[in-house]
Amino acid sequence: MDYSTHIHYSTHWRFDEFLPGVAVAMLKNFHRPIWERISRYGAYHIALWSYSIYLCHKAMAFIVDSLLAHWTLPAAVEPLIVACACLAAGWLLYRLVEAPFMSIRARQFPTSFASTKPLRRSPPVPVNFSQ
Questions:
Q1: Which of 118, 117, 121, 55 has its CA nearest to residue 89?
Q2: What is the mean pLDDT of each run of 10 residues along the chain (131 residues)?
Q3: d(CA 54, CA 49)
Q4: CA 1 from chain center: how many Å?
């Protein structure tokens, strides 16, 4: 099944864009411990890998889709495999390309924003408005 045309070219009658948002809102509001655990651990890593996932997700979707074209899979399985492949490829791209080059950049061009000493602030000057 070519699911990608149904996802990327959805109609107004489909809830592809709406249901994940509702699911996240329900998880956040009605299952607080699960939401906190997911947002604490999962969101951190997804945020780290997000640019790498963005760079490779479309190509990975086409590659996996062409590899799975010869197999007959249930409708919900193929998008799940594509999502896992995109996450894995994003993780690899982050670990093998982005992270090493970010550390090289940090060594070659240290940031001026990271201060090693805490800022010293002078005490506030009292203002007398009664005069």
A1: 55
A2: 57 59 84 84 80 91 91 86 91 93 88 61 64 61
A3: 9
A4: 27
